[in-house]
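Repro:
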Amino acid sequence: MATYIDNVKATIALRRFLGNTFTTAHYNLLAELIESPLSLVVNNHQGVLSREHNTENDLPQFYIRVQELDRNELLDTLPLYSKNFPSDKDWVTEVIGQLEQKPGSISVSLLYAGVTTSTTAQKCAEADRLQSKSGGTRLLNWFSLTTGRHPSVFTIQKFRLPPVTDREHFYTQIGYI
C-alpha cells in the first residue's frame, strides 16, 4: 500500500516529468487521446508523432501503435474477440458503446501506447506480432484475431529526456507517473 511519502514522490515525479518533457503539441495530443481515443487523426500531430524511430538504445522511446479500421468492421470483430477472450468483456462493451455514438462507416483507430529502452519502437512492434500466436495480453490477443492488419508505429518526438543509464530506476520513475 502506498504511503503518504510515496504519493508525494509520485506527484513530484509527475510534475517534473511533465514540466521538463511536454510541449503544447504534446498536451494537444494527450487531450485528443483522452477526449476521443477512437478518432485519433495522426496527421494533426505531425510535429509530435513520427514514423522515424530512434536507434540509440539508451534513449527511452515513447510510442503509439495505431490500427485503423472501418467502424462497422470493428463492430463485427468485437463480438468474436469477446467470445474468444471473455475476460475482456468490459473493454469490448466500452468500445462498442463509444462506436455506437459515431456515425455509419467511418475510420476508427485502436491505440496502444508504450515505452521502450531496450529496442526501437518498430522492433518492439515486430516482436509483439511474432508473439501474437501465444496471446496473453489484450494487444497480443487482438493481433491473433486481426492477422495481416498490422498497426502503424509512431514514436512520440521532442521529449526532452536524458539517456537512461539505470533502466530499473527509469521504469520505477515511470511507474510513479
